Amino acid sequence: MNSTITLKLTPTQEEQLFATFNEFLSTPPQYAKWQLKPENCVITCYTSGKTVFQGRDANIYAAAFINEPEVLITTPLKSQYPQAGSDEVGTGDYFGPVCVCASYVTKDDVDFLVKLGVRDSKKLTDADMLKIGPLLMERIPHSLLIVTPQKYNQVHEENNLNAIKAKLHNQAYINLAKKIELPSFKIIDQFTPETSYYRYLKNDTQIIRGIHFETKAEDKYLSVAVGSIISRYGFLKTWEEMEQKYNMTFPKGSGDKVDVVAQEFVERYGFDRLCEVAKLHFKNTEKIRV
């Protein structure tokens, strides 16, 4: 059944959305900045500032941009254990890596995780993540993948962002399966329709199947929340190393501040080295004066 979702996105969110799905660019209708047509959805960004998602999977594509703080109170934790869950971070940031983590949580871990504040992961600051991350990594079986910008740019030449994410989630589960026996219940915080996810993996030699796909999964499943926090921890530690290496402070996201620092980096190190710190397919790259 088709649905329509209309959101008022910030300029940064618009750029993030466009960067994610720009390979599906279509001729925009009147009064629209751009229109994208990924599978089972039409996304139209209008000059009025509204972005409309229409189609059978409109909720999947819009989920990342819907702010639902009340979900932390109204949504009970799903209690099926053991469970494995995965999430990713960094895909909306021009600078820095993309990180994906899959984790394995049993019923015995629940009290420990709730006391740490994992349940309310969206309320955690980066400082919180840096404190909690090592504690989770010590106790919870997990697989963390960190893709540097340079590696990301190489892979992106032949794979779109969602294909990269699908391959990373699949590999995280493959690696996790080497540490523990994967449970029957495995969850991914959904970023693409299920059919698209497995199509992206069709040429992979090993594919983990039987995945449950659900939007806002980190609010409902502790394993996904753990995956989100460990991913963020890996992202932040890699970010620190990047800033130390280049003696620069890099802003997160993809807004105007990012454009300024990207220009500064190119002036300092040259355009050819921008691939070492940035995801070049973002529109920010087009704004740089060489």
Can you give a write-up of this model?
- The chain is an alpha+beta fold.
- It has 2 domains: 3-65, TATA-Binding Protein; 77-241, Nucleotidyltransferase, domain 5 (2-Layer Sandwich), CATH 3.30.420.
- Helices cover 39% and strands 18% of the residues.
- It is built from 10 helices and 10 strands.
- It has helices at 11-21, 58-62, 71-74, 110-116, 126-139, 149-156, 161-177, 194-200, 222-246, 256-269, and strands spanning 3-8, 25-26, 32-36, 42-46, 50-55, 83-89, 98-105, 142-147, 186-189, 211-214.
- The strands form 2 sheets. The chain has a 5-stranded antiparallel beta sheet with strand order 1-5-4-3-2. The protein has a 5-stranded mixed beta sheet with strand order 8-7-6-9-10, sandwiched between helices.
- α8 (194-200) links the parallel β9 (186-189) and β10 (211-214).
- α5 (126-139) crosses α9 (222-246).
- The longest helix is centred in the last third of the chain and has 25 residues, at 222-246.
- The chain is globular and about 55 Å long.
- The termini are far apart.
- The model is unreliable at 69-76 (pLDDT under 50).
